[in-house]
Design brief:
About 45% of the residues lie in helices and about 20% in strands. The protein contains 3 helices and 6 strands. The strands form 2 sheets. It has a 3-stranded antiparallel β-sheet, with no helix packed on it. The protein has a single domain, classed as PH-domain like, CATH 2.30.29.30. It has about 170 residues and is an alpha+beta fold.
Amino acid sequence: MDVRFLSAHEFDKVYFYCWITGAVLLAIVVLILSRIGQEPVRDLLLVSGLVSPLVVRFVIELRRLLRSGPAFIHQDQLFIVKGDSRRQVALSSIHSAKSSHSIFMVRRYRSWSDHIAFLEIPLANGQRVGTLVDSAMFESPAGKESLAGLRAAVSAARAASAAARTAAA
């Protein structure tokens, strides 16, 4: 199975387009706020009612993005590199993995194939780590191949650690 985590270079592209999208949404909000008192209240409520869910979803995805970092699997370890820190997680300590589609976080605009998904990985100790993976547009679950590849790697690591414990006993 192939696990297609985004590299640090791809993360930089996602951050770049994230800030462009944020600037556009901020400009829309400022434009709406500047029209208060000049436009009928009904029109402003309609427009703000349409823009509010977009802003809320953007903020949710931005928080997920800021908690995520580039990841890779080496031997039986998952490495998540974020800034100057490198987190090393044993694959056998991963409790589960789930993914969700991204609406605003992209690697490039005007592309039907460059979609990403958030991959959240709860650990056995209760902590959660996250990264981004490649995903098709209407793929269900998001990042299906990467999610299946990670689950297969976790199962193999658990089997190897169980075999090592059995051999040691």
